[in-house]
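Wait, mind explaining this?

_____
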Amino acid sequence: MCELYGTHAAKLKGVQKTLSILLPAALAALIVACLLWLASDGRISAVETPEIRPAPEPYVVVRSTYVNPRVPDVRVGDFERPHGVPDYEILQTDRSEHDGASGASLVVDTRATSERDLTLIARDIKARYADLDTVSVEFIDSESFLDYRGGALIFNTAVGAYYAGFIYGPPNNKGYLVNAAD
């Protein structure tokens, strides 16, 4: 005999009460399922091809009135090589040209970490690549398993600044932006 429920009669009474609740609920669910099946033309399909409708017409047609300005052919910044440039090596150079603007992406290996030292390297690269409109530079340290040191964006002309995404002109008169990783 189980001490938890007391007698067998008490157990049967609990089962009967449970069945008196579950049976009508199951019967009601079955009736609802049958009514829904009859309302859906008697078809039940797990996978049906969806109805394909044409795309709606736009409410308002938006047209841009922006006219790409002719960027002036102006040199930006100083092109003299600075003194005291830290050691660096150009590991990779990818040149590109787009809409008359020439550019390059460089990967530069250096031990320099400060923004001042990276700026000196960027100014030296600016002088070396003065014939290009824009140059983007990634500074890494290959001795520390390709540790990222920072980056620089060099724009030698107004066209180069436009090519680099500055549509309203160069962001400064120096011709470069340098950011050291902290």
